[in-house]
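Protein details
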Amino acid sequence: MDEKNLTPLIGLTLPELREVAAGVGLKPFAAKQMAAWLYQRRVNSIDEMTDLSKTARELLRQSYRIGIEPPVARAESGDGTVKYLFEGAGDRRVEAVYIPDRDRATLCVSSQAGCRMGCTFCMTGRQGFYGNLTAARIINQIMAIPESGSLTNIVFMGMGEPTDNLEAVIAAIEILTEPWGMAWSPKRITVSSVGNIPGMRRLIEQTKVHIALSVHTPFPTERQGIMPVERAFAVRNVMEMLRGYDFAHQRRLSVEYIMWRGFNDDDMHAIALARLLRGTGARVNLIRYHAIDGDTSRQPSSKSTMEAFRDKLNSLGITATIRASRGEDIDAACGMLAGKDQSKEQSE
């Protein structure tokens, strides 16, 4: 039997593992044993689950596999960022980006192959949508890289819109944060969204992770031109919804703001953005635009302009910082993920 046809055990939550246990005649407590082998001891084979009976292991092997699959390719940036290519969905591959930074090691993971949101400045959005990743495919990105054991943070900011694949994303968060799983603090995880109000509401209420919202301009007409989601979920309505939750203590709300020269980088935009964010407790991450597919219609704002925009926001009571750009030389920076195999071109 081709092992690829067997169901992966990674990506299964504790209730799902109880169903697996029942299917091979084990007591419900065996689910916690399997979870410990999978997510804490990180075994590579069912045979290593030695506190399960030999018969149970044989029955498990008939229908299941551990499910950890190594990356298809790897590309390393001159700044130490590493981009990994994984099997995804709909015959399309996805990327995860490992970003080391002094005492932090962040992994940016994908939740979909392609994306339905259609943001014009994003390489993933330009591809169209090919399929949702399973929880197993999401967790595999975290468990299969060599740096897995040293990770300090996970950000769902890779390919896809996390709230458009919420069942799998919430299952992955559960595996990451529950005591029977990897037992991470939710404060180590950030999930990004373009502003899907029902999805964000559910994410906020069912998890304790940090939330990041892509805004990019405070003006509705401008935003609709670059982010079609504005038609369905106006950013003003998103902010009104977010004001109903507490982001002042254990969890953080941040706003992602890519800056383009002459488009959204002047005082007028800063003042309107500060007004939009008032009462939410949101912090702003200013991001330099990274050109995609040779598109020269948009240019990144200059460093001095970004600094002036940051200072203006700070003077208006909004905490703003400029995010350092990482991995641009391997198309791993914000908005550049496309699921391409760059291993050949990196070795030439």
Q: What stands out?
A: The longest strand covers residues 92-101. Residues 303-315 form the longest helix (13 residues).
